[in-house]
């Protein structure tokens, strides 16, 4: 089994190293990841310049591009073969609810899925992030549990692991995405040259975090696994818009 | 009525100028757009540095950030008031089917929607793009048709206008997103210094472009309007994953 | 007479517009300038990606690169002819003393000079910068006074104009570069996410600003003109190093 | 003795690792280098956003900025002490003649010098670059030979080492900078989307490479050491310009 592993924190991040090691127990792992931290890069594809790949002493490859670039480049040309699975992570921090839209970690996995390959995004939820190796083991278990799927149909899973020691981990929950409150306003400040600047503010707290959501599962010590799809059509609203806008 | 207008092609692009003029016929328009072409920036949010805003002689404001940054910054602090509508575009080129995931134009509108404001993304579909002012008039009509919604509930619309003279325009269709074939492989090349480089290849042709899709509407001379939602949960697959992964 | 005009503040900056207009009185002016503010870009040449050129409605061309890129690209391929003169500016702010090493404005002119073309960098010194058109007229006079040089040998001039009304302007002084005190320390701060960040501090005040320097001339209401060269060899120290390091 | 070590190829480059090891034989070495390849960044200082520092597992620190940023940040705030020496390199490739104006490697050392600290830039000259450890040993020898200077006056040295086995190395030469022919024209090309792009061309071959120059020394198997200064004033031309431009 050959796994393409990427992330959005950069090829040097502890999360990807932990996951590479855990996956190596049962698969051949190929790392193609951004050369620097691209958190928040989302689904950005680099169209206005070419990409380059280099190899670090660790054997990991790094690209001067986004997480989506890395998976796109690896699958459609660089690797020279089609991986059986794309894994992205372990992200340093949660990707739950609306985060999935902005997340470079999810974007890397989604790119694999759009290219027809089963793909899994893995994030570690917490502030201090002390349990990367536990999270890596948990993620590797999920990967193995999925990998025996004989159907061959691609899927896209968003996995969030609470930052807990394995003794405190409660098991797995398949969830739907919750929803956050609106983000905090931008923080207006002044730089040392006296110019007004704005920092994007903190993400909102969980709003829809009831039972069944990713937020709820993780808050209760479970690994959250959410199957995702990529069709943004709001099917339930098609007919009412039809009435209003037809012309 | 106060409209925040942004795009991903940059504040100087002909598309945003045409749309600003058309919307000015019935609304107060505030332009906050990227300082340079950020096509493909998707939902990128700039977290690792602050943002600055400048004012062009045209009165348009431009930001050293992404389309999402522009809307986020404008709504959560810079404008000083809450716009009634966010409009993004007119994009130079189509945003249909899977494009919506990568599109900075759609991302800007989606940011407005996530902040609770009705939002509309507008793209011009074609190669030569000769009919910006027709497209702007068409888009302005859609905006006006939506704006009398008394419910106050936010919505997110993805509008694609064929690049046709108004005489050839057939009307409006409310559609679902189609689907593209996989993208072309990366194009391997060598730069003048002899180093291997890779260009992201062309997007795939339409795959699911049957009746009812955005591709089909535009190909037949109609303006395509797709209502979007942002919850990526694949609800239909929750129970089967529950069976497989519960532990 | 054909003049290539560039800057480091971006093609949309008031300084370059004022200078383009003043030079148009006696020369054909071609503007090729950065698409965004690249102050502090120094002599950066973009080697890891290709450059693109676009044309603004004003007729100015803009490049997704540095000031040096702009001049390099224009002279060695884009223009299709060899300009008689390269002018860079009017920069928004001083470029005196050690500033010349960091200055993108000076770098653009230096690139012209290294390509064998007489080149002049122009900067406006002051805080509020109210007198761009006066500075442009003064700079145009310098350009005309230089342009009748029959020798054909390239030269490199660094011109700094005080931000004064023409009535208060005292004339021209040919000067040597002064020297600044060391820059202020970096300003340590914390971003809204709690991470330590550092801002580069303010430049130092003038240290060597005695008679004969650019600082002195401008402080006394004169236009400062400093001829520059680009050989950094410290000839006076060759023999002592020879003694110490020969092996 | 405490040495600040930086470069422009990125903190992960083989050249800086080799030099760090060689210098560790007789000094305490602190590495603060760019997070990614910034070749050609020249003296760029990052003014429009703050800088961040991270620590790699190797103990090296890396910065989201230019070589000049790294030295500036380390000396004026991050290190917390004033290093006795700034060393930059080993650069992957030559920095001779006019290269010194564009070189990020030289810029990093020059920043140390402008901050009042003795500073040395080291580059490896060749195509395949097989002899990093030899070059590191040679550079360490130069550093040691300089370090016993009791005068305390800062100096700036530009060292170029030929890529030879130690058996073929001929000794040291103190040199002046040579001069290159003009760079090759930009290379016009078309990207996969059909847009015209331009690559900056190759640097010119050596033009002034006679005896006494850095080019000549390296071509003959010697380590070239050029003392540099940073005052760009063309003193020899002051009086003739005085005559022409006085007004």
From TrEMBL, chains A, B, C, D:
Pfam families recorded: SurE
Subcellular location(s) per record: Cytoplasm
Main localization, broad class: cytoplasm
Signal peptide range in chain numbering: none
Record keyword Nucleotide-binding present: yes
Organism domain of life: Bacteria
UniProt keyword GTP-binding present: no
Keywords: Cytoplasm, Hydrolase, Metal-binding, Nucleotide-binding
Cofactor binding annotation: Binds 1 divalent metal cation per subunit.
Cofactor(s) in the UniProt record: a divalent metal cation
This enzyme's EC code(s): 3.1.3.5
UniProt cross-references to InterPro entries, sorted A to Z: SurE (IPR030048), SurE-like_Pase/nucleotidase (IPR002828), SurE-like_sf (IPR036523)
Binding site for a divalent metal cation: 8-9, 39, 91
Gene3D superfamilies, per the entry: Survival protein SurE-like phosphatase/nucleotidase (3.40.1210.10)
Catalysed reactions listed for this entry: a ribonucleoside 5'-phosphate + H2O = a ribonucleoside + phosphate
Domain Survival protein SurE-like phosphatase/nucleotidase: 3-183
PANTHER family recorded: 5'-NUCLEOTIDASE SURE, 5'_3'-NUCLEOTIDASE SURE
Function: Nucleotidase that shows phosphatase activity on nucleoside 5'-monophosphates.
Family label: Belongs to the SurE nucleotidase family.
Protein name: 5'-nucleotidase SurE
Source organism of the structure: Niveibacterium microcysteis
